[in-house]
Write a structure and sequence with these properties.
The protein has 385 residues and is of the alpha/beta class. It has twelve helices and eleven strands.
Length: 385
């Protein structure tokens, strides 16, 4: 959705999960504009025939499953059959896109995965230097390193860069750190860099505890405002309020995202807001304590640690917790309000937790789109996902 919003026209979307495909089809049937022209292929990407796509591809975008690298997963990396990076390499070779965009969890940068991460970057840089039959990836990595250091030219090569981004720094009301990898085809001689952050924690602190703009915007009276954290009070006393100055906009909070929604616990399920239904049974436990109302949400998660885990909970003013509704979670991932999740709460939260925030995807894809337009003006941008 972020790529479509940035102006890319999708030729193919490959997704094996039937529930996710059902959600997309449901919204396509509802006439959601961003989904116009989407061609969904419900299948294993390993079986997808890229020769069916005849157009020149500007952007290949994908998120190889994060479970092999997730801190909450089994940490199997290349030993995990769900490692789909080799399938992304195959797609790059087959489609020869002008650019590609990959998203994955920050666990990909963990120390015990660093060699494999280097392998990923070098295979993306030199996608046609294939592994030999039965060649272990570590031996293939050594050959890739020798080739890369030799300076030899490739028939197909990419300039690859990566960055660990926090979605909160780009206006998403959620602290969500993810690795993004972007490559531009070498023959384009692109000089692209990641967009700089637009929002900051320092600005939020300034708006809360120095100017009070945050509380005034939400019509929170002085008597209902929380006390300034002791550490911040000491810091302000020591350095002065001007030390919190920031040219960026303030981080967006849970309150910023959902304050206009009525409390679902008072609705008895009768609210005429799609997906905004109260889910009982939330409880706090060590490591899963919910998200404060006046901070960006903790990372929304999918799987056993997020559904029905406590990271998908809101901490109320009295210290009690409740689950986010599907609509609230969708807001925290910056889905538009007309995007509907037709599945059960748990399945919908899994899909939301697995998603890239639409706003962050748009910002990165828009930057790529703008750069490609400079390189190839007067061309409608085509994407394969």
């Amino acid at each position: 959705m972020g790529c479509a919003k940035a102006g890319f026209h999708h030729l193919a979307l490959v997704e094996h999960d039937k529930h996710s495909c059902h959600t997309i089809r449901e919204n396509h049937g509802r006439g959601i504009a961003l989904l116009d022209g989407w061609h969904i292929h419900q299948m294993d990407v390993a079986d997808f025939d890229y020769s069916t796509i005849s157009s020149e591809i500007d952007l290949l975008a994908g998120g190889p499953p994060c479970q092999p690298f997730s801190i909450g997963g089994r940490h199997g990396a290349f030993l995990d059959k769900r490692d789909m990076f080799p399938q992304f390499f195959r797609a790059v070779r087959a489609l020869r896109p002008k650019a590609f965009l990959i998203e994955n969890v920050r666990g990909l940068l963990r120390r015990n995965f660093l060699n494999y991460f280097e392998y990923i970057l070098l295979q993306l840089t030199h996608p046609e230097l294939l592994p030999k039959p039965d060649e272990p990836w570590a031996e293939h990595l050594a050959r890739l390193e020798r080739h890369h250091n030799s300076g030899k030219s490739d028939n197909l090569g990419y300039r690859v860069t990566f960055r660990l981004l926090n979605a909160a720094d780009y206006g998403v009301p959620q602290k969500r750190e993810r690795v993004f990898i972007v490559g531009f085809r070498s023959d384009l001689k692109a000089n692209w860099s990641f967009p700089e952050p637009t929002h900051s924690e320092e600005a939020l602190l300034q708006h809360k505890w120095v100017t009070g703009e945050y509380w005034e915007r939400h019509s929170i009276s002085s008597s209902l405002r929380p006390e300034i954290p002791a550490k911040l009070r000491t810091r302000l006393q020591r350095t002065g309020a001007n030390q919190l100055g920031s040219m960026a906009d303030p981080w967006r909070t849970v309150r910023d995202a959902i304050a206009d929604l009525p409390p679902p616990e008072n609705s008895n399920g009768a609210i005429e807001i799609p997906n905004h239904i109260y889910i009982p049974g939330a409880r706090s436990y060590p490591g899963h304590t919910g998200s404060p109302f006046d901070e960006p949400a903790k990372t929304l998660k999918a799987g056993v640690h997020g559904v029905p885990g406590g990271e998908n909970m809101l901490v109320l003013r009295d210290g009690q917790v409740r689950y986010f509704t599907v609509r609230e979670a969708a807001r925290l991932q910056t889905f538009p309000d007309d995007y509907y999740f037709p599945c059960t709460w748990g399945e919908s939260m899994r899909q939301i937790g697995n998603a890239v925030p639409v706003t962050l995807a748009y910002i990165i894809a828009d930057s790529i789109h703008t750069h490609l337009q400079k390189l190839t003006p007067d061309r409608k941008m085509i994407g394969a996902v």
